[in-house]
Amino acid sequence: MSLINKPAPLFSAPAVINGDEIVEDFSLEQYIGKNEVVFFFYPKDFTFVCPTEILAFQEKLAEFEKRGVKVVGCSTDTEESHLAWLSTPKANGGIEGVTYPIVADTAKTIAQNFDVLAGEYTMDEETGELAFEGAPVALRGTFVIDKKGLIRHMYINDLPLGRNIDDTLRIVEALQYTEEHGEVCPANWEEGKEAMKATREGVAEYLSKH
């Protein structure tokens, strides 16, 4: 299911903010009209690939923030688990030093609504028992949400595949460039490179130079 150009699913859930404070009713709605948001899911606290991604987002946080972009993480762990992991030093496999919000989707409804849950509930018609097929955690989903609350970019990695945070930043830059200048960004576009007009003439001119 593609969520592109659709409103980001709304939610209110517990989260850890500033690395050390639990809030009970965190929502992305606070950013609508003011900021773009990079909202990303990861599978599980206290694992292996996940801390590399979470810390990589923290390393690039200043680059996102200077562009007015908020970064928010989310997994199906509890807020207490998030807080414990945030309090654990990097040398011990923790993510101490991360300051952006991390949402606790313990009901798995946020992951379900963003279509990144790595499995699904099934009902045994004979016994009436509910079961879960797959992994009851979130895939590595990344969503770029514009100031209107619309999802403008999404990609989803399987559990073993870490994402590229530099490319997420590039997508943010491309989105902001197109909205400011009205041009489109060709393949491998990066900030500072030439974009092009969305016309036959514009494409021809661009291709003739490259």
From TrEMBL:
Q: Name one Pfam family in it.
A: 1-cysPrx_C
Q: Which InterPro entries would you find in this protein's record?
A: AhpC/TSA, Peroxiredoxin, Peroxiredoxin_AhpC-typ, Peroxiredoxin_C, Thioredoxin-like_sf, Thioredoxin_domain
All copies of the Thioredoxin domain together span: 2-177
Q: Which domain of life is it from?
A: Bacteria
The record, for Gene3D superfamilies, names:
Glutaredoxin
Keywords annotated in UniProt: Oxidoreductase
Q: Where is the signal peptide?
A: none
- Protein function: Thiol-specific peroxidase that catalyzes the reduction of hydrogen peroxide and organic hydroperoxides to water and alcohols, respectively. Plays a role in cell protection against oxidative stress by detoxifying peroxides.
Annotated family: Belongs to the peroxiredoxin family. AhpC/Prx1 subfamily.
Name of this protein: Thioredoxin peroxidase
